[in-house]
Amino acid sequence: MEEIQAWEDLSNIPADPPIMRDLCRNCERPKVVCWCSALPPERLNPESNIILLQHPAEEKRCLRTAPMLQLGLAENKCLIYKGKKFPLPKHDNLENILNQPNTILLYPSKNAIDIRDLNYDAKFYNLILIDSTWPQAKAIYASSPLLHKIKQVKLVTSNTSSYIIRTQPTEGCLSTLETAAEALSQLENNSIYNEQLIQPLHMLCKYQLENGAVTHQSKEFLIKTRTYPKLIGKRLTKLLKSTNEYVLD
Questions:
Q1: How many Å separate Cα 100 from the centre of its chain?
Q2: Which residues form the DTW domain (predicted)?
């Protein structure tokens, strides 16, 4: 009897595909959650170029900031290359870009200098950003020897991330969009990039929070306050002990 009922239930499942929500042709998100109205009134056109080296896993995320950056800047001012190692034969013109003397890599290595300390001996820069999680970024850097030869810079800023619906590794971490906006503001000496590029992110977070999302604290904060929910390994245990001492002091 149960088997007959099961077959009847299956037979009542609609054969037609589910109705899909209308998508915005620009950002390709459902129109109800489209953030295009928060993009700059006119696409910003900096002297410098942004080159994103994007881990394949980023493309699968629902809430990404790279499209906001690409649509906020003039055409071809933000190029995206996908992979786990760079450059590869499929990456058109990337090797040439990486070998140019005015190319800089935003990466916090021990040799990185403050981006504000550049000599600005170039009319413009090709700013390379790795678009991924921090562990993925380290893996990409380790497997891409050409990246090691590029002048490396870092951001020194007191800004905190507005991407409050996603957990950041530490208090000072910024999203790809925020990092690019801050870097361009410093390179171009123009705050318009910080002011206008991140508005779609504010709109996205506002919508998500109004529809059930919650704000996220950084992993660093959760560890220090002993509220980190996940099982931790030896490296995090060591970090936890040191932060416990810091909290107790």
A1: 24
A2: 20-213
